[in-house]
Design goal:
alpha+beta; seven-stranded mixed sheet; Nucleoside Triphosphate Pyrophosphohydrolase
């Protein structure tokens, strides 16, 4: 006989990815419409089922900016409770190198524009930043946070060790 169903909900955080893409002293940013307001963020989004974290970061950056990027390092993992929806978020942030841009590529729904801003220009956006993780990940990258990508392990097969 199967175990009785429980009414206890299982907590599942939102798993997101983001890329800090630098070009000298400028960083690739997106202006997006979120719940009726304009906010600024790095190229970022949700991990899809059966998708590697690094692949999700490349996909989200392309979809939101038209830039193809090559991830170089893992900057860090960030845990946060979103002020937008009140739920937990685990954010995996990568440092990536811009490879090429397709200015004709349509951007994701809600993305107004992608542009390059300095850290100072990003800092003055204040509460217009989508989350405190935006500036924190840039500052971590500037402070030298760089983990090799091979710290991330992936088993696409449920039967793998």
């Amino acid at each position: 006989m199967p175990p009785a169903a429980t009414t206890d909900a299982i907590w599942r955080p939102h798993v997101t990815v983001a890329c800090v893409v630098s070009d000298g002293a400028r960083y690739l940013m997106v202006e997006e419409e979120v719940n009726g307001r304009l906010a600024w963020n790095q190229p970022a989004g949700h991990l899809e089922d059966r998708e590697r974290l690094v692949d999700a970061a490349v996909r989200e950056t392309l979809e939101e900016t038209g830039w193809t990027v090559e991830p170089q390092h893992l900057i860090g993992l960030y845990q946060w409770r979103s002020t937008e929806h009140g739920e937990g978020v685990i954010r995996c942030c990568f440092a990536a190198h811009a490879v090429r841009h397709d200015p004709t590529r349509p951007l994701d729904t809600g993305i107004r524009r992608a542009l390059w801003l300095t850290r100072e220009e990003i800092a003055v956006l204040g509460d217009r930043l989508r989350s405190p993780l935006v500036l924190a990940s840039i500052d971590d990258w500037l402070a030298g946070a760089r983990l090799p990508l091979d710290v991330l392990r992936w088993w696409p097969d449920a039967n793998a060790p």
